[in-house]
Amino acid sequence: MEKIKCAVIGTGIFGEIHVHTYKTYDRAELVKICDINEKRAKEISKKYSVKYTTDYKEISEDKEIQAVSVATPDFAHKDIVCEMLKNEKNVLVEKPMATNLKDAEQMVKQSKLSKKILMTDFHNRFNPFFVNLKESFDKGEVGNISFIYARLSDRIDVPLKWFTWSGKSGPHWFLFPHIVDLVIWFSNSLPKRIYAIGKKGVLSSYEVDTYDSVTAILDFGKFYATLETSWIIPESWPSIVDFYFKLEGTKGRLIVDFNEFVNKISSDIKKQTFFPFIVGYTPVDDKPFGFASLPIQHFIDCIFENKKPIITPEDGLINVKIIEKIIESIEKG
Ligand SMILES: NC(=O)c1ccc[n+]([C@@H]2O[C@H](COP(=O)([O-])OP(=O)(O)OC[C@H]3O[C@@H](n4cnc5c(N)ncnc54)[C@H](O)[C@@H]3O)[C@@H](O)[C@H]2O)c1
What we know:
- This protein has helices spanning 15-24, 38-48, 57-60, 78-86, 101-114, 128-138, 157-162, 171-174, 176-187, 294-305, 313-332; strands spanning 4-9, 28-34, 51-53, 67-70, 90-94, 118-121, 145-154, 193-199, 213-219, 224-230, 241-249, 253-257, 282-284, 287-289.
- It is an alpha/beta fold.
- It folds into two domains: 4-123 and 287-311, NAD(P)-binding Rossmann-like Domain (Rossmann fold); 128-279, Dihydrodipicolinate Reductase, domain 2 (2-Layer Sandwich).
- Helix 4 (78-86) links the parallel strand 4 and strand 5.
- Nicotinamide-adenine-dinucleotide binds at residues 9-15, 34-37, 40, 56, 71-74, 76, 94-95, 163, 174.
- Residues 9-15, 34-37, 40, 56, 71-74, 76, 94-95, 163, 174 line the site of nicotinamide-adenine-dinucleotide (NAD).
């Protein structure tokens, strides 16, 4: 079987999931990885027995590479994505597609010129909890949407300890893409008006200049969605994420609460009860298990079978546009 030759640029926390997925997927052949942090590049190269580079141009110039995952920080997607598309690579880019609309527009324009795949990694479209709710919704089991409430927040150690670039992102860019996309995916419509409020103070006291929390109301005319995100949940909270989604329909309701469907681990060593979020990515028998790997495999399948991804370039663009409008609403009051 002819395999799709691929590469990963940005091999940090999430890029490693792309690396692991390509390395173990039978339709993919991981040719090279790239990270500007040579220590990290070397570490991943050794762990997954793959060549590395610190210069992404080495990936774009490699004629045999057909598919590239871009998992660099939120603000650092556009130049790499456009360079890959110009060099006829299919691209899977991490969410958010960009942290401003201009960058997203440039990327979508380049994908049209190059006639190559540009897919944003909205992995909740592959999350079995949401796939199940969407099936029920599409069958008309709960009627039309009356309103949606969704919350996706992180513990404060995510912005303070995981990343050096948190001040260039924020809960609105890092977390809202998921729940904004869920609302657009379920409703298949676009908001007419957006109202939002955001607060700063806690993160900025640690010199991370971004919002602590944001709440937005998206008014679609016939229904509305209230979205909430925070990056300041205390470290004593047992889970890294706080994820809740509720769709109130005219004939029923759909709810998923990820605070309930979790493992619970208490140990004297950690001195704290912990609820690991294992449904996204958990290696089992050295293979990636969980919904985070599914869009990466779908991306390869689309190239392999010459079909279009279920996530269009415009899905990524609309997402950025909505989040930019949320910021505009906060700033203009
Ligand atoms: N961490 C998560 O839970 C998560 C989940 C979903 C999606 N994402 C998304 O994935 C992307 C990456 O996030 P992460 O958590 O892996 O961040 P990270 O900071 O752990 O990794 C980013 C990596 O990109 C590298 N990098 C930066 N600029 C580069 C360049 N020009 N060329 C090559 N490498 C470069 C950095 O050295 C780093 O190793 C972000 O857009 C993020 O929103 C993260």
